Amino acid sequence: MTDIFSAIQRSAIRIKDAIDTKDIGYSQQENSSGETQLQLDIKCDMIIEEEFSNVASIHTIASEEKEHEVMLHENGKYFIAYDPLDGSSLIDVNLSVGSIFGIYENAFGAKNMVASCYVVFGPRVEMVFAHNKVKLHLLQGKDFEFVKEIRLNEKGKLNAPGGTQQNWKPYHKELVDSFFADGYRLRYSGGMVPDLHQILLKGGGLFSYPATSDKPNGKLRKLFEVFPFAFIFKKAGGEAIDGEKDLMELSHANIHDTSACFFGSHYEVQRVKEVYANN
Ligand code: F6P
Ligand code: MN
User: Fold this and answer.
1) Is 68 exposed, middle or buried (0-12, 13-18, 19+ CB in 10 A)?
2) Consecutive 10-residue averages of pLDDT for the chain (279 residues)
3) Is 214 touching ligand 1 by the criterion CB < 6 Å?
4) Which ligand is nearest to the CA of 195?
5) Is residue 194 within 6 Å of ligand 1 at its C-beta?
6) What are the φ and ψ backbone dihedral angles of 4, each rounded to 5 degrees?
7) Domains of the chain
8) Model-wide pTM > 0.90
């Protein structure tokens, strides 16, 4: 696993350089979810593939930017699903973006996840790696220095409600409003990585991306986005559900499948469960 951790660190340093220096023009291509790819999305995908190609323990990779999985080393045991540059549409307005990695053993699937990691590219570059514990690292020069372990409180103060309100179910809107009525503060940039990072580092709260009338299975992708963060939130002492079920109990049929998702500390997720159970 240390070789994978090092490859992710090397990728992060190269991606940071690409963000700082590369043109952000659109390519002529769309990814599997129908989003127009930036040249930067493609560049970051290439960087990660190159770094992972040098790691013999990696069997197969799946990327949000690739239609199909790619086998790298027949004798490897890890399957890594990654989103090379999550939130890349925020680059032109200079907001934070991130890379997300789900590390699975023997095959893709929530039940096979053994570690998970994300990198935040903001004013600073930070990396969170979850194996047994959830650990925060900060890029200083060319090295990632350990900063601290991340643990969620029982209850937080932040509310990050994703999706278009117009398409929310009425009971979902009531749930979101009820948190604001209790004094929760709105914190939503539209980048999954910085929005969840903020909740993890400020002790807790709720991030939701529900099933909506236009996206009945939610928007966020299970293998590259949902499972990696669900693993991290659970290891940090929080919870991650699809409205009723633990996200880590979900299966997937296709590598680009999506799911509704809620990540947070115990108190907030308990409230989601109560509201969703009654609707
Ligand atoms: O990758 C999808 C993504 O960009 C996430 O980073 C983010 O949480 C979400 O979409 C935002 O979606 P919306 O603009 O619909 O709230
Ligand atoms: Mn993404």
Assistant:
1) exposed
2) 96 96 75 80 96 98 97 98 96 96 98 98 98 97 97 98 98 98 98 98 97 97 98 98 98 98 98 97
3) no
4) 1
5) no
6) -70, -45
7) 2-149 (3.30.540.10), 158-277 (3.40.190.80)
8) yes
